[in-house]
Design goal:
Layout (H helix, E strand, L loop, with lengths): L8 H25 L2 H25 L3 H4 L2 H25 L9
Helix pairs in contact: 1-2, 2-4
Keywords: Membrane, Transmembrane, Transmembrane helix
Length: 103
């Protein structure tokens, strides 16, 4: 079964850093400004980053069978869906008349 875990571990770490570090910064800045919608927008990339980091750790530990299980694939799809969903909501609300506290 082909899953997200078929990437090389180095690529998983790079993608986890590229998604996770900005998400952590966005969460910290949203908390400091009291903009709670910013936390929602950053949760999807943070979930995907944590999933990729976990997969890289499992590959390093030699647990390839665990990564090929349907449950882990389902969790990957959920994290990817949260990432795409939060990105789409963020894009769609940027130009709208929806005014959220802190904007």
């Amino acid at each position: 079964m082909k899953t997200f875990a078929t990437l090389p571990p180095v690529a998983m770490w790079v993608f986890a850093a590229l998604l996770g570090l900005p998400a952590l910064f966005d969460i910290a800045s949203a908390l400091s400004r009291g903009w709670f919608a910013g936390i929602f927008f950053a949760l999807g990339p943070l979930m995907m980053a944590l999933y990729l980091a976990w997969c890289a750790l499992q590959r390093r530990a030699g647990r390839a069978a665990l990564l090929e299980s349907p449950r882990v694939a389902l969790i990957g799809y959920i994290c990817f869906g949260a990432f795409v969903g939060s990105f789409l909501v963020k894009i769609m609300t940027q130009g709208s008349t929806l005014r959220l506290p802190g904007l």
